[in-house]
TrEMBL record:
Signal peptide region: none
Xref: InterPro entries: SpoVT-AbrB_dom, SpoVT-AbrB_sf
Family matches, as SUPFAM superfamilies: AbrB/MazE/MraZ-like
Protein name in the entry: SpoVT-AbrB domain-containing protein
Single GO MF annotation: DNA binding
Residues of the SpoVT-AbrB domain: 5-50
Taxonomic lineage of the native organism: Bacteria, Candidatus Curtissiibacteriota
Length: 88
C-alpha cells in the first residue's frame, strides 16, 4: 500500500490512518526508523524489557517501568551516592 503523507516544518510525519490501523500502532509508541539506500522504513519498536518479559526474573521495583526510566534512576543513584574514596 502506498499513500502520500506530508512532513511539517518540525520534521513530523503523520502516518495515514489506514496504515496506522493496519500495522496496529498505538499513541506514543516508539518506532524504529531505518534509512536504506534513500528509503525510510518505519517499524514498531519492541522494548527489550517487554520482549524478554517472563524469561528473566525482574525485581519488583522495576516491574511496570520502561528501560529508559530504570537507566535514568540507576544513573542518578550512582552519581549522588558518596564513593568510598570521597569519604577519606
Amino acid at each position: 500500500m502506498q499513500l502520500i503523507a506530508s512532513i511539517t516544518s518540525k520534521r513530523q510525519l503523520t502516518i495515514p490512518a489506514s496504515i496506522y490501523k493496519k500495522v496496529k500502532f498505538s499513541e506514543r509508541q516508539k518506532v524504529l526508523v531505518t534509512e536504506i539506500e534513500g528509503q525510510i522504513i518505519i517499524t514498531p519498536f519492541v522494548d527489550l524489557v517487554e520482549k524478554l518479559a517472563g524469561s528473566l526474573k525482574v525485581p519488583k521495583r522495576w516491574k511496570g517501568r520502561n528501560i529508559d526510566e530504570i537507566i535514568e534512576n540507576a544513573k542518578s543513584e550512582y552519581f549522588t551516592k558518596p564513593k568510598v574514596n570521597d569519604l577519606r
